[in-house]
Amino acid sequence: MTVPDQTLAEETAPMRIAISHTTRYHFDDPVRYGVQRLRLRPRDCVVQSVVEWSMTVEGAVIEAAYDDHNGNNTTLVTLNQGVSEVVITAHALVDVRDAHGMVGPHSGFMPLWLFAKETPLTKPGPLVRALARRFTLDGVNDIEVLHELTRAVKDAVAYEKGVTDATTTAQQALELGKGVCQDHAHVFIAAARLLGLPARYVSGYLLMDEGTAQDAGHAWAEAHVPGLGWVGFDPSNEICPDSRYVRVAVGADYAEAAPVTSLTQGGVSSGINVALDVAQQFMAQ
Asked: Cβ(197)–Cβ(227) under 8 Å?
């Protein structure tokens, strides 16, 4: 199997990325009861370290902070009774190094075999199975094959906003032929599992070339390759994640790695506003 040059990754200075992320939830009617589970704090791992982190909530109370079953930094908040707006503001400084997508051996509470099982969002339908049948892993050129799969996913699902949502499955995205990074990740994961590899969803941030202001975070996939461990692939950009990518949460699919999940009684939502800024911060030499 072809293995990327890890020496270069070790010698390359990390990139420091500054993230400012504000989400406003508006409710037409006052909320009687509500809880939110937040996965917004980037993960410390072999490819990145969190230098600074802060989070504030308005209209809600932080009740607990813990690592969930996937090892994600998780915060549980309860919404104030009668609230009509909730504001979550997070700031982070993260040093990220380029490891050619490699994240290392599996760790955490969840056994590796669980990431080989299908989920509601990654259940393979006919189009997913047809896509996977185009590829074969031989234990020698697996990374090259996964890069080919990455390109095939992008070709099959053209990037277009507003066509899919958080409930769109991998099969549905292929049927539509359109979607966003979340859909690309789900299709890749579903196909990789059919090829016999555990695979998982990654939510995070991407430093863009065209500016710092963004309207949403980013998502990609990781496959567990024998002899290498977890390796990231971003079908939306047809590359392995590098030092511009900040990992926040992982899971079997989007549902387990979503930045925010909510449960409310009353207070029908009238809209969500997101203000996100991802920028490089230059470090003093």
From this structure: no
For 33-73, the pLDDT digits (tens) are: 899 999 999 999 999 999 999 999 999 999 999 999 999 99
The H or E element spanning position 152 is helix 142-156
Are residues 90 and 114 part of one domain? no
What is the three-class DSSP state of 9?
helix
In whole angstroms, what is the distance from residue 110 CA to residue 71 CA? 9
Residue in the structure block whose two tokens are 């590899």: 197
> Model's pTM, two decimal places?
0.93
The answer to whether residue 212 is domain-embedded is yes
The reply to whether 1 falls in a domain is: no
- Residue where the block lists tokens 């504001």: 87
Sequence-distant (≥ 6) Cβ neighbours of residue 120 within 8 angstroms:
169, 253, 255
List own/partner pairs for 262-266 with CB under 8 A and 24 or more apart. 262/25, 262/34, 262/35, 262/36, 262/37, 263/34, 263/35, 263/36, 264/27, 264/31, 264/32, 264/33, 264/34, 264/35, 264/79, 265/31, 265/32, 265/33, 265/34, 266/29, 266/30, 266/31, 266/32, 266/33
Give the three-state DSSP class for 150. Answer: helix
